[in-house]
Design a protein that fits this description.
The complex is a heterodimer of chains A (about 575) and B (about 170).
Chain A (H helix, E strand, L loop, with lengths): L44 H6 L21 H15 L1 H8 L12 H6 L6 H16 L1 H6 L10 H11 L7 H5 L6 H13 L6 H13 L7 H19 L14 E4 L3 H4 L3 H15 L3 E2 L16 H18 L3 E4 L4 H14 L25 E3 H10 L15 E4 L2 H6 L4 H10 L30 H7 L1 H14 L3 E4 L2 H14 L4 E3 L1 H8 L22 H4 L22
Chain B lengths: L1 H12 L1 H13 L4 H9 L7 H19 L3 H15 L6 H6 L3 H9 L1 H4 L5 H48 L8
The chains are: A mainly alpha (about 575), B mainly alpha (about 170).
């Protein structure tokens, strides 16, 4: 052995002769530890009943007896056989993994938690082991030796735990040489669990609400009208502009829909206000719908059937209102549904026209089939044609970075438009490191129905890689805002930032644009849409005492908001 | 006094090796596959936990050797404890990694410590490590409180808006 003052010394393998201790049992025999903070409460019976789903009952994840229906193993195996026939991708993904390990350390939940069953390869293995045992010749004969295992209650509990620890973000699939898409495996796992009435309430309640009212929050038509009207009061206070809210307007040119999360919670509400303000400025003839009142679709996190049922309202409402085309707001998973499923699921939308911007005349060829345009596509085109008067210096107190939301980035490939818009609305834009953005972006940790407060500890583990990259640009460039075009991001990233990068606030992109826009007939702009004083706009002199709640004072986090 | 200076000097010269041993011992507490993956990947964004453990253990060791005050020790342990406070481990395990530093020092200085050399000096050094453990406990408790607070804050972000909506049109007293 070399001496300690020789360079080789520190590289010596003898220096560290420690053998990792756990796991004390092989993965198949390591039971799930349902620790509070790491799982989501189960779906309530009343919600399952609304949707005619099997085995509605009230139960708890920590119950020993999950009240499974008679013959549940048979139900699962038949459900698996059915799906192996229906979905070619599922069959392929069960067979082709060679366990190369490329995906192993790419999942944000693995990276943050260190739990090997969060390695995508092992997450898939949870299903594959059962598949092997019952659907492959080798597995039928050799069982465990061939990597197969019996379907037991413990296996089921493990599925429930880990398939609700996947945000279906598809980061791992970027690295898989075979293109195995773990999101689709998780979808299958959740569908199979659903056959036994095993859902999480954070997903199934929104689905039930949406089925009844058209949006996840169960907001009734008059409630939605009130909400939007109330926003116009704040808009007027901030800008001096009084706007009308077109609701269920027949014959409007565009049907606009956006995630319902933006109706109720900060900071999403400011994004919602911005849509209305910007459409008003541009003279866009659009309408909200109180029925197609949610762009989000938690059916995607439930089953193909649920997704289709919830999505059907979009084209139906477009037809009823007689619009020409559809525009959608800043949402994540909504765009996976719209971009990849809506057309074949509920189309063809042959009664609509190919979207053409009323402001610039640009035809959105990319939306020729779905007839649905992303607001960032629309807005970047508007800015490109100089149709908005922007004064980015109004955002000079903001040093912003951009979080690519998983679905728009990886499922839709919309990478440049949001950046183009941000660069025109802000003078200080800083990218996070290359391996944490664009196709390689890290999830917020709260997607695919995981973003509920009882799951906080797990979300913070999953949000760690994103939070870590945010903190890096915060320390390096003084970044103080994180822009994201996804409602789940706007709901969950404030928490991720408060824990991993305290001091960074979360914003939608449209909000940045609205705050930078010089509107026709605006009053002197001293406050932004959050009704916080804008530094350098003279508000401090007039009301230095105006310490509005949630204005980002140190240590306050993002707990409150600017409404008193 | 001379002995003390000699031990400190020895520790400083061997700090890299001690930190390596310590880091490896902490990493080895994670499952085998995790240990392998985190040891292999050195990019700080691809492997933030592994990176924080590696960098953090060294930062803490340097603080110990410099005789840093309580505030500086807190700062040094924060990165690692913030991570372990939300991982699937008991509170004692989350902060217990600090004590593995004692093992690392003894393993590295095995020859020099034989025959009872530096006994008093080592006792003092180990007291410093205990102070780090206490700092880690403080940070751990703070982070757990923060987790609860974050849950409350998420609810708060909804409530003012809902209340405002309900109260619309109601004339406020005063």
């Amino acid at each position: 052995m070399s001496r300690f003052d020789e360079p080789d010394y520190y590289k010596k393998e003898e220096l560290v002769q420690i053998q990792p201790k756990p796991p004390r049992t092989p993965w198949m025999e390591t039971p799930v530890d349902f620790r509070p903070g790491t799982y989501i409460y189960p779906g309530k019976a009343k919600n399952l009943k609304v949707l005619d789903l099997p085995n509605p009952r009230d139960w708890a994840v920590t119950d020993v007896d999950w009240q499974l229906p008679e013959g549940w193993q048979k139900t699962i195996l038949e459900g698996m056989a059915d799906r192996l026939k229906r979905f070619r991708s599922f069959k392929l993904f069960m067979d082709i993994c060679v366990r190369c390990g490329a995906c192993a350390d790419k999942c944000h939940f693995f990276i943050g938690s260190g739990d090997p069953k969060n390695m995508p390869v092992l997450r898939a293995e949870l299903l594959r082991s059962v598949y092997r045992k019952d659907f492959t010749a080798l597995g039928k004969v050799f069982g465990k030796l061939a990597g197969g295992r019996e379907l037991t209650v413990d296996v089921l509990k493990e599925w429930f735990y880990y398939f609700y620890q996947c945000t279906e973000c598809r980061r791992c699939s970027v690295f898989c040489p075979y293109g195995i898409d773990t999101a689709e495996i998780t979808m299958m796992g959740r569908e199979l669990l659903g056959l036994l009435g095993l859902y999480v309430n954070w997903v199934i309640e929104p689905v039930a609400n949406c089925f009844r009212t058209g949006n996840h929050l169960g907001i009734t038509p008059h409630g939605l009208a009130d909400t939007l009207e109330f926003m116009t009061e704040d808009i007027e206070e901030a800008t001096g502009i009084k706007i009308d809210v077109p609701i269920n307007k027949k014959g409007a040119e565009i049907l606009f829909f956006t995630p319902s999360g933006d109706y109720v919670a900060a900071p999403g509400i400011y994004t919602c206000m911005s849509y209305m303000l910007l459409f008003n400025e541009l003279g866009v003839d659009y309408t909200w719908s109180t029925y197609a009142s949610d762009g989000g679709n938690f059916g995607l996190f439930t089953s193909h059937e649920a997704m289709k049922r919830l999505n059907a309202k979009v084209y139906a409402e477009a037809k009823r209102l007689g619009v020409k085309w559809i525009m959608g707001g800043e949402c994540g998973h909504m765009w996976r549904v719209v971009n990849q499923y809506m057309d074949t699921m509920n189309g063809p939308a042959d009664f609509l026209e190919v979207p053409k911007s009323p402001v610039t005349g640009t035809v959105f060829e990319n939306a020729r089939s779905t007839k649905a345009v992303h607001i960032m596509e629309f807005m970047s085109d508007v800015i490109r044609h100089g149709k908005l008067k922007l004064d980015p210096s109004r955002n000079d107190h903001i040093r912003v970075t951009f979080h690519d939301s998983c679905n728009p980035a990886r499922a839709m490939g919309i990478l440049e438009e949001p950046r183009y818009v941000i660069r025109h609305a802000c003078n200080h834009f800083y990218e996070m490191p290359e391996n944490t953005i664009r196709e390689q972006t890290f999830c917020c940790g709260g997607g695919a129905g995981l973003g509920t407060d009882e799951n906080m500890e797990m979300r913070l583990r999953g949000g760690m890689p994103r939070g870590n990259a945010v903190r890096y640009v915060q320390e390096r460039y003084g970044v103080n805002q994180l822009a994201a075009m996804c409602a789940i991001d706007r709901a969950t990233l404030p928490t991720v930032c408060d824990y991993w990068a305290p001091g960074v606030q979360v914003t939608g992109i449209s909000e940045l644009v609205a705050n930078a826009t010089v509107f026709k007939g605006e009053k002197r702009r001293t406050h932004n849409l959050r009704l916080e004083p804008i530094p350098g706009m003279g508000a401090e002199d007039e009301e230095s005492e105006a310490d509005l709640v949630g204005a980002g004072a140190p240590g306050e986090g993002q707990g409150g908001m600017g409404h008193e | 006094m001379v002995e003390r200076a000699v031990l400190l000097d020895l520790l400083k010269r061997r700090a890299e090796a001690i930190a390596t041993r310590w880091y490896d011992a902490v990493l080895a507490e994670y499952p085998e596959q995790t240990y392998a993956a985190w040891k292999r990947e050195s990019n700080r964004f691809a492997n933030p936990v592994g990176h924080s453990l590696r960098a953090g253990t060294r930062t803490i060791l340097d603080a110990v050797l410099e005789g840093a005050d309580a505030e500086a020790l807190r700062g040094a342990v924060t990165d690692i404890v913030r991570i372990r406070a939300v991982q699937q481990m008991s509170p004692s395990a989350a902060v217990g990694f600090v004590f593995r530093l004692k093992d690392a020092i003894r393993a590295e200085l095995g020859d020099e410590l034989r025959n009872g050399s530096f006994r008093d000096e080592m006792a003092e050094m180990e007291q410093r490590v205990d102070a780090v453990a206490l700092a880690a406990f403080d940070v751990f408790a703070e982070q757990r409180e923060l987790v609860s607070e974050l849950r409350i804050n998420e609810l708060k972000r909804n409530i003012p808006w809902a209340t405002g909506r309900t109260n619309r049109g109601v004339v406020e007293p005063g």
